[in-house]
Amino acid sequence: MTENPFIICENLVKIYRVANLEQVALQGLDLVVERGEMLGIIGPSGSGKSTLMNILGGLDRPSAGRVIVDGRDLRKIPDAALDSYRRTTVGFVWQQSSRNLVPYLTAEENVMLPMTFAGVPPRIKSQRTRELLDAVGLSHRRRHRLAQMSGGEQQRVAIAVALANMPKLLLGDEPTGEMDTATAQSIYQLLRELNQRYNLTTCIVSHDPTIARHVDRVVAIRDGKTATETIRQTVPIATAGNGAADEEVEQEDIYHELVVLDSAGRLQVPKDYLEQFGIRGRAQLEITPDGILIRPAQVVQETQAMRVARPEAETVTGRIGLRRRLQSLSSTLGRWTRRQEPPVADARSEEARHGQ
Ligand SMILES: Nc1ncnc2c1ncn2[C@@H]1O[C@H](COP(=O)(O)OP(=O)(O)O)[C@@H](O)[C@H]1O
Ligand SMILES: [Mg+2]
């Protein structure tokens, strides 16, 4: 059970219906997150990031597909079980920290509030509040009201509030969206520390690609699907051979951006790549020693060129014209599909008819 991934999304679809209009927010999204992993999620505005967060957080249900978190099927579990999942398994941090906070209470009182609602005994409550405020670096500010705190400090309190009921999953929807770069970096660092300290599976949506430095993996969402994944690899820095002492090998991070194949084997090719090679509508796949090459569909272009050069060839209707076209198509397709032989089968049936 514990070996299973913590989050599995398969072919996840979310359609919002507003006044007879359908808005497809997620269109077949696939995602797997391991227990204890820290994942960054980036993507243009409107690509479906918040929709995914809301589904993972049990605030909304998908329209179709599968979403399993910690063994629970969030599409199928009853409402009461979803409520309990939301309260006990998930912590949420928002762009506006105020969504987690009561402004006229102190930091400490804010962190205690969710535990009070959950009926946690007072002694455990105080102990855990102290521990959490220490973990977010705010022990010295615990008696301060939120109004006396900076934006970064308020977000730290909001993170402590999100962790009050010891969730296994922490979701952040652009938690650094309203911060300057330095504060944002310190919040990412804090989230990383908490992820490791509590083995907290963590998914953070960000508009900032530098989040890659702080997380295990970054997934980019485009048009409601996972499009690419960026994976970090730490490698020794190649020295220029200047005689530096080799006791301490310096390391650097290299990022690899990989295209994601969905469960049906589809992949999204970046628009600028397609435009660069004029690929539209159809493409030709070619097996090469190193992999699969995607080329503009020359079959179509050749056929059009033939139409211009030899108009009579295209005006021939019937079996011969069709056969020639099929042969030209199969000689191209034969590079990547098994060769079909429809014209031969056709001829044989003709012979059979003559023989009768
Ligand atoms: N409650 C809703 N009702 C209708 N459409 C919605 C709703 N929430 C999101 N959408 C639409 O779904 C798409 C994805 O939105 P969202 O998940 O908020 O994207 P992101 O967080 O990446 O900016 C957008 O086109 C948005 O307009
Ligand atoms: Mg959003």
Write the layout of secondary structure elements.
Blueprint: E1 7-18, E2 21-33, E3 38-42, H1 49-56, E4 64-69, E5 72-73, H2 79-88, E6 90-93, H3 107-117, H4 122-135, H5 151-162, E7 169-173, H6 181-197, E8 201-205, E9 217-222, E10 225-236, E11 251-259, H7 271-276, E12 283-288, E13 291-296, H8 298-309, H9 311-315, H10 319-333, H11 342-355
Parallel strand pairs: 3-8, 3-9, 6-7, 7-8
Antiparallel strand pairs: 1-2, 1-4, 4-5, 9-10, 10-11, 12-13
Helix pairs in contact: 3-4, 3-5, 4-5, 5-6
**Going across the major beta sheet, what is the strand order?**
6-7-8-3-9-10-11
The average pLDDT score comes to: 84
Helicity range:
25-40%
As residue ranges, the low-confidence spans are 312-356
Largest sheet: 7 strands, mixed
Coarse structural class: alpha/beta
Task: Write down the secondary-structure element order.
Answer: EEEHEEHEHHHEHEEEEHEEHHHH
Intertermini distance:
67 Å
**Form type:** globular
Percent of residues in β-strands: 25-35%
Tally of strands: 13
List bound small molecules. Answer: adenosine-5'-diphosphate, magnesium ion
Rounded to the nearest angstrom, the radius of gyration is: 28 Å
Number of helices: 11
